[in-house]
């Protein structure tokens, strides 16, 4: 079992940056595929980024490529999402997710077993 706690969300102006954190407990982070999703009220959860277990291979949604970076710090058992050049279209609740194996489509929410509570990111113009 693994528990995920997200933090780092807030209000930022267009062009600004935020770094989200996802602290994991109950299992070593290196054993899990970790991902970030985001969701706007009334819409389906949208894939943002994923980092694989062990080798830490990364993949991003087209909408965030070149702007967002997912990373992990195994010593702190934490996954990060560095978000740069933010725009109003990035406004959403951001969720951290974990899967124990590198199987299933990594951009599908159903591929993940554990989820954090979400952290709000609001980008103003």
Note down, in words, how this protein is organized:
The strands form 2 sheets. Strands 2, 4, 5, 6, 9, 10 and 11 form a 7-stranded mixed β-sheet that branches. Strands 1-3-8-7 form a 4-stranded antiparallel β-sheet, with no helix packed on it. Helices cover 0% and strands 49% of the residues. A hairpin with a 4-residue loop joins strand 7 (68-73) and strand 8. It contains no helices and 11 strands.
Quote the distance from N terminus to C terminus. Answer: 40 Å
Biggest sheet: strands, sense, closure? Answer: 7 strands, mixed
Order of helices and strands: EEEEEEEEEEE
DSSP helical segment count: 0
Radius of gyration: 13 Å
Beta-strand percentage? Answer: over 45%
Structural class: mainly beta
**Helical content, roughly?**
under 10%
**Could you tell me the number of beta strands?**
11
Keywords:
mainly beta; 49% strand; 4-stranded antiparallel β-sheet; 0% helix
Topology of helices and strands:
Layout: E1 3-7, E2 10-13, E3 18-25, E4 33-39, E5 46-51, E6 58-60, E7 68-73, E8 78-83, E9 92-99, E10 114-115, E11 119-124
Parallel strand pairs: 2-11
Antiparallel strand pairs: 1-3, 3-8, 4-5, 4-9, 5-6, 7-8, 9-10, 9-11
Summarize the model shown.
The protein is an all-beta fold and 125 residues long. The chain is 0% helix and 49% strand.
């Amino acid at each position: 079992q693994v528990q995920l706690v997200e933090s780092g969300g807030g209000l930022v102006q267009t062009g600004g940056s935020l770094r989200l954190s996802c602290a994991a407990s109950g299992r070593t982070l290196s054993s899990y595929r970790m991902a970030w999703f985001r969701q706007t009220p009334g819409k389906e959860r949208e894939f943002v980024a994923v980092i694989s277990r062990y080798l830490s291979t990364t993949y991003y949604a087209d909408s965030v490529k070149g702007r967002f970076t997912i990373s992990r710090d195994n010593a702190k058992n934490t996954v990060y999402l560095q978000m740069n050049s933010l725009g109003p279209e990035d406004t959403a609740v951001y969720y951290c997710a974990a899967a124990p194996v590198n199987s299933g489509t990594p951009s599908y929410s159903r591929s993940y077993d554990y989820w954090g509570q979400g952290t709000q990111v609001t980008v103003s113009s």
